[in-house]
Design brief:
102 residues, alpha+beta, Glutaredoxin, binds glutathione
């Protein structure tokens, strides 16, 4: 897969850890860009306009043939990374259960 992945994160966040863990389990290179959420770094005009209008991390940035795209929400990012891997079960009920994870 010809893509570059960057996680916009605060390293103290469990929602960000989930994504780093998923990438590590799959052996996917993941760059990181850190923000201090307690200091309001995800509430700046630049962050809101360029990364996530919702003002929250994590956000997975994907650079590929489609361009540069930003994917907020930890479960969506984990699903994106795990697509086509054994981390996503084949069974329909097991897949739906995975979507319950927070
Ligand atoms: N449902 C979201 C929750 C995201 C979230 O609550 N992020 C928190 C840190 S874990 C945040 O960015 N807080 C800073 C703020 O709201 O200003 C997810 O799973 O990614």
């Amino acid at each position: 897969m010809d893509e570059a992945l960057t996680l916009h994160e605060d390293p103290r966040s469990g929602n960000c850890y989930k994504i780093r863990l998923t990438a590590a389990l799959l052996g996917l290179p993941l760059a990181t860009r850190s923000y201090d959420i307690m200091g309001g770094e995800t509430r700046t005009t630049e962050f809101l306009s360029k990364v996530n209008p919702n003002g929250r991390i994590p956000v997975l940035q994907i650079n590929d043939a489609m361009g540069v795209r930003f994917l907020p929400e930890s479960n969506a990012a984990c699903w994106y990374l795990a697509h086509g891997s054994a981390l996503i079960p084949q069974d329909r009920f097991a897949q739906a259960e995975k979507l319950r994870w927070n």
